[in-house]
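REQUEST FORM: STRUCTURE PREDICTION
Request ID: SP-0412
Submitted by: Lab K.M.
Chain count: 1
Length (residues): 788
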Amino acid sequence: MKFRLIDEVTKKPIVDAHIFINNSSLGTISDKNGYCKLNVSKQETQLLVIRHVLYKTLSISPEQYQSLVNRDTLEMFGKTVNLNEVLLTAKKSRKWKKNFRRFRKTLLGEGKAAASCKILNPEVLQFEEKNEILTVNATDLLEIENDYLGYTIRFWLEELSIKTDGSTYYKGNGQYINKAKPDDTRYSKRRENIYTHSLPHFLRSLLKSPNKAALKELGYELTFEEYEAGTFKTILNPTELSTLIQPDSLTGNYQLHFPEFLTIKHLGLTMSSENEVQVNVSLAEQRKLGSSRTQSLGKKVQNQVSRLYKIEPYLLFDKRGNIINKAAVREYGYWANQRLASTLPIDYNSFLDSNTKQSAPKLVDTLQIFKNLIGYDQQKKTAALRFLQQNWSQGYIAPLLDILRLSKDDWQQQEIKAVLNKHEPELKADYFNGIQWLWKRSPKYGNYYADFKGYLYSAVDSAFYKYFTGRENQTIIRLDEIVWGGVSKDGIPTLKSPTMMAANEATYLSDTDVVFGLVIHGEARAYPKRILAWHEFLTDDIGDQSIAVVYCTLCGTVIIYDTEYNGVKHKLGTSGFLYRSNKLMYDQATQSLWNTIMGTPVVGPLVEQNIELSTLPVETTTWGAWRKRHPTTQVLSIETGHARNYAEGEAYKDYFADDNLMFPVQRLDRRLPNKARVFIPRPKNFAAQPLAIAVDYLKRKRIHHDKIEDQRLLIITESNGASRAYAIDNQQFKTYKNGKLKDINGEVWLVKEEALVGPEKQRLLRIPAHEVFWFAWVNVFPETRIIY
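STATUS: Completed
RESULT:
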C-alpha cells in the first residue's frame, strides 16, 4: 500500500498518523509529507486502521486494500477535541487508584503476563461512574509495555465498562511492536506456550485434523453440549471433524458449525481442582438458558475448559484462525479470561500453506467477479457469468439485479436473466419486480456487497462511492433496499439560504396555493409547495438556529429538522438514493446516509452515535389562510436562481394524478389509498406507539383527543384541512369553530402558534407534527395505529 494522508479541509499533509492492521504487528506512521507505505498480504482479513488524535478514525476493509495501492491521497476529517479541566497533583487520589486497578484488571487480565505489563501513560485515562457503571475512555492511545511477551502495544481504547455485578466489556484497536531480540528464547517460548492454547491455534488445528484422534494429538477434545436445568449436558462427541467446517464461497474463509455450545478441553493445560470456575452469563443468555448471572464449570476439572456459545448460524474465521464475525460467538472459561496481556498479534502465525488441507476452499474474490461484469470486456463478463452459473448462491441476486438496473448491454441483460430464471424460477427477472421478491426474504448478500454497490453506482456519480464502500458493518437498514432514484448527488438542487420576501411582495401566489408554514422565535415563514416540490430540500438559518426543510415529493411530506445535535450542525443534502420510496439524505462531513422520516443516520460512521435530529412543528395549509394568521410572514421568493416551471401543481403532476407509485416498496396497506394524506403527531416518544390520523377524518372532526404512551394530545383542524397538535394534561375540549377553542366547561382558550393559552394563563405547548402519504409512513412503521 502506498498513499498520502491529507486534511479534508486544508488539504495539508497529516503527520504522525498511526496506520496498522488491527491487532497485528503490521504498522507504520505517516511521514512529514503525509506519505504512508505498508506491505500487507493479499489474504488479510482484518481492518486497516488509520488513527490520529485530531482526526476521525478511518477503518478500511480488506476488500478496499487494492484501492490504496499507489493511490495519491486519502482524506481525513478533523474532529473536535474536548479538553477537560486538568488538575496537576503529585499524588493520585485513592478513588483514582482504585478505578485504575479495576481498569487494569479488565483490560490486561491477571497472572504473570498481566503483572509484567506497564501502562506508560495512565494520565490519558478518564474515569466516569454513573448508574453504578464505571466507564473508561482515553484521550490518546495507550502505551503498554508487555515485558512478559516482549511487545509494546499501542492501544486505542474506544470504550471500557465495568458493572457492579462484575461483568466487563471493552473495545479498541491495537498495534503490537516487537521489542524482543531474535536470539531471546524467553519470549519465543512464552509466546509459543500462549499460542498453543489459543483460539486461533484451535481453529487452525480443526483445519488440519480430519478426525477426533488427530485433534487429540494437537491437544484438544471436543463435545457438543446444551444447557438445561442448571447443568451442561453432552449431546454428541463428534468423531469426523470435516463436517463441522464448510468453505465460505462468498469470502473464501471458513464456517464453523456446531449446536448451542461447543466445549473444548485443553489437554496438557491443567487448573487447580480446589476452586470452582465461574463464567459470566449475559442477560439475554440468562433468559435463554434460565440461568443465574454466573455458571459453574465444575470443581474437579483437571484440564482447562473453554466453551463457545453460538449466537449466529456459524462462526466465520480465516486461514490463520482469526474470527471474522466476532459478534457471532461468546467465549467462556479459559479463553474468556485471556485479556490483552495474554494476547498475541493476529499475524503471530502466517496464513496456512495451500497444501495444509486438501479440502481447504479456493479463495474466491467475489467482489472482483462482479466487477468483471461491469465494463466492456466481453471475455471477463462471460467468465464471470459462467462462475456464477456453476457456483450459484442466493447472495448473488442483489448485485445481479443492480447490474440489470444500469446495464445497456442487451446480451448481458439476457444472460443475467437466464441465470436468475434457472436458479430462482419464482423471481421475475427484472429489477423492480426482482427486488420486491427479494425484500420478502431475509437478506443473503455477502460482505462484499457494500463495496460492489459503491463501485457500480460510482459509474453514475463518483460521489456515490463513499456512500457504500467499506460500510458493510455500518448500516442499520438492508443495503439491497437502497434504490437509486435516477439522479446524481444533489441532482435535485438544494435551496441554500434562499431569498425570502414580505407577504405583500409575493404576487406570484394565489390564496389557494399550498404552503408549508413554520414559526421560529416568533418569526413566521412560508415555503410554497410549488417551489419546494422542484427542489425537495432547503437549508437556512433563522437567528442562531440552522434548519433543513426536507420535502419528499414521492412521499408527500415535508419535515423540518433542527440540524444541530450535541453541538454539531450537520450539513445535509439529497443523496440521490431512496429507501422504501423515501429519499435518503447525506451529511457533508462523513457522507453517511440518513433516513428522511426519522432524521437518523442509517448507513455510515454515524450510525452508532445515536443521533436523532429534533423536528419542528410545520403546518400544511393555504397561502391565504397562512397570510391571514401571519400578516408579517416571510415567504420564499420565486427567484431561486433555477429555471423551473413553478406554477401550482406542475411538479410531478402525473405522479399526483393517480394512486400508483413510481418506485417499489416493501409492503402496501390497503386500509387507505397509497397516497392518502395522514397527519403524524411526533411527541418525544412517538416511535414507541406510532399514530397516523387520516387528514380527511380530521377535516370532518375539527377536534380530536388522543394519547401516545403517557402523553395526551389535542389536534385541532382548520376549515381548509390544516392541523396542529398540542400536548395537553387532563383537559377536555369540546369545539373549535372560527378560531375559538372551548373546553367542556365552556371556557375559551386562545389558539396560538406555539401554545394553547387557557383562561388562567396556563399554557399547553405545541408539538411537532407533519403530513405524509399513507404508504410512506406504514413502510417505516408497519405496526402503526391508524384512525380514519
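NOTES: The longest strand covers residues 151-163.
Reviewed by: T.R.
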